[in-house]
């Protein structure tokens, strides 16, 4: 419960998923209903042909493109909240790592050992010398081998 009131635990991802599901149902049902309604009105002659075709296209568009755009929109919101979750876990791991390093430093200092260590640097050869890679221009017209 403490994570809930400090906003460390987010509930919005579940809400976005429920909101996506409701939007999916509305877009699918609305697209099918519009296309079927327009088809029935065209068949009975109560709707001009050109307008009926537009309504059918709009229904199919809502069904396909509308659901795709709705999915991308909801995924972007979930992505934002997942970034928050990942950053919070990185922060938590960093706190544990810092605490562990401080404890290790205290233990080393109590023993009289120095915490600092020398870092050996190796001489790194360029890749074209290590692997004998020929360098050339993009088109292969000039270059040094």
Task: Summarize this entry quickly.
Helices cover 71% and strands 0% of the residues. With 145 residues, the protein is mainly α.
Describe the protein.
By secondary structure, the chain is mainly α. It has helices spanning 2-5, 12-44, 49-110, 127-130.
Question: Mean pLDDT across all residues, rounded?
Answer: 79
Roughly what percent helix? Answer: over 70%
- Biggest sheet architecture: none
Please give the count of helices.
4
Shape, principal axes of CA atoms:
elongated
Give the H and E element order: HHHH
**Kindly, what is the distance between the CA atoms of the first and last residues, rounded to a whole number of angstroms?**
67 Å
> Which regions contain 5 or more consecutive residues with pLDDT less than 50?
none
Strand content: under 5%
Structural class: mainly alpha
What's the alpha carbon Rg, rounded to whole Å?
31 Å
Query: Got a strand count?
Result: 0
List the helices and strands and how they pair.
Layout: H1 2-5, H2 12-44, H3 49-110, H4 127-130
Helix pairs in contact: 2-3
Task: Give the key terms.
145 residues; 71% helix; mainly alpha
